[in-house]
Amino acid sequence: MSPTLTLTARLNTSAADSRRGLVRVHPEVLTALSLREWDAVSLTGARVSSAVVAAAPADSPTGLILLDDLTFTNLGIREDSAVVVAPVVVHGASRVTVRGSRLASVSVTEPTLRRALLGKVLSIGDTVSLLPRDLGPELTAAGATASLARSVGITWTNELLTVTATVPAGPVSVQTNTAVLWEGESREGVNRAVGDTTPTASAAPGAPPRSVPPTGTAISDTQPTPDTQPEHRVRPVSELVGVDTQVARLEEWLGVTLDNPDVLRALGAQPRLGVLLSGPSGVGKATLVRSVCAHRPLAEIDGPSTGALAADGRRTAVQAAVATLPATGGVLLVTDVDKLLPAESDPVSTLILQDLRDAIAGGAVALIATTSDPGGLDSRLREPDLCDRELTIGLPDAGQRAKLLGAILADVPTHGRLDLDTIASRTPGFVAADLAALTRDAALRAASRATREETDAELRTEDLVEALGVIRPASRLESPDVALGSITLDDVGDMVETRQALTEAVLWPLQHPDTFTRLGVEPPRGVLLYGPPGCGKTFVVRALAASGRLSVHSVKGAELLDKWVGSSERAVRDLFARARASAPSLVFLDEVDALAPRRGGSTDSGVADRVVAALLTELDGAEPLNDVVVLGATNRPDLIDPALLRPGRLERLVFVPPPDAAARADILRAAGRSVPLSGVDLDDLAAELDGYSAADCSALLREAALAAMRRDIDAATVTAADVETARAAVRPSLDPDQVAELEAYAARRAE
Predict the structure, then answer these.
(1) pLDDT of the residue at 228
(2) Which of 29, 201, 337, 490 is most buried, by the most CB atoms less than 10 A from its CB?
């Protein structure tokens, strides 16, 4: 059951937070609820709502929660009322429907609306504003705010919307591929789905996201349309970073197909071009296409908005977009095509695919579709007469990230020279959009310091370093079980052998690659941690993730198993593909005994056997795992297929024993680093906690902090009496029989 706290509501007077779906609580409250900044919380007053939580100033009272006026309205409470705060699981929305004024619903396009609500946590019945949660470069005068001001006028900041429906139900967050619709979507939605004046959420590969020419309109470099304003400038291809190969290939294909079709006909080939461009969200797929096609007529279809229309509306939107291209032809760009043509096809998808075939059949129109989920596409889109060519944009490496940061911060005043190489080395898995978010958070810190100290507003390297503790890259969002924090391998108690094994297998290859090359050896491929539940196996993975020098891809073994033939094997391949793309990276297989049991004894129609084979193929197959380390964790090492434990695979087996008294004291000191203890002797307490695991020790201090809050919501310290109260609620969880079996297994391995 999730922990809860009851806090007193006060009005947040900060203009920067006003009406942006943000609440603030004391940092100790975040700790007590096991939350990080920018996580989602459930708020219960007269009604239930949700919001994004951030830290209030450290000098604010512990028992307060700072809300804006809209959140007060959503909760149906007044100032000084009680609010119950708890963590909440929030899913990315596939569709959100809102109701607003007639002016807003007629004037504001769905993609612009999505940009204004991006990142906000919504519940049915909530009132929300158009003020973006994050005023970054793509949401300033060059982006959504400019579109809102042009559409609604200067009153756009006062415009309020009501959330009328969400898919799925419950608290949801607005993502880059969420379809955000006006209630009672009519034929007007067709035009909005085709003719937006703002970009999609894909960030430029070479710089922070910027606006682009209006979509659904034929754009010419020699004859700009009246709607094409200077802020809609497309970034030159020369400014893009890390996509030279993709740019060259796309320019070549477009040049041959659209500019020299006779050459293809002379060679007996049809001048037809369909390209599927895939890559992670925010990596810059749409921006690359717009840059390459800057001097060509371009019509754009927003996949999420169009896919959310009624059946006839979807097809009409596609036909309307094609009709905007001149007779001489051009390029049809479909962003997030998986939302328009999902794998679960319907009769309308068949008609849309035929419309796309007809559009490109003559060779005058080229089709380019982007997606961040290639596996979720209608397979017919890849047929030879449609998208028969594919390009992929991977995650940028450290050098490319440094160049991206340089481009993003080119015009930003700085205090001395920024150490961008260090920041780049600590941001594996970040795409351009993530780096832009990182610089925005750093800018907020710099602005706060300048206001507080009355100095010039200048960005410093330490601002970027501090922002690393807040911003999570897209690649890590797929690993929710690995909670990032400020812990390091030095905080893992008395686990000397574990620390040494992980240092050698994971950190040494990153820190000393020349030494491995000089000695002519390959670094260890994988490590298996085994021990009783709650003894710190996952904790050490958090420590590695928090080092910031590698991206972590976490999955529980059973999550990859699927009864359908081929699905589980594909999940394994996709997992390792993501790890290779974001190298240096760590693949963490929790409960690996469920993923790779001994072959031949299962009764699941061979699914487990095929998964083991797929896993072995990935570990030492034809495609090498460069800069990828595999870490497994299990409570039952005897159930794992022996082939997985031979050298070259999970070759280092490390026993993580239950903590003894000294180790428990170290764990309590690490867990209680931010807990203000008074009159508590951790060494004496540790000696009394026989049978407690590392997780039990951490839970004990957390429960003690909650006990202090129950005693006095404004309590400043946690006393020995609070700890004794917590011991009555948190009991030891270690099973002596299981511990004995694991110790015997470790002894046999040592013989």
Answers:
(1) 31
(2) 337
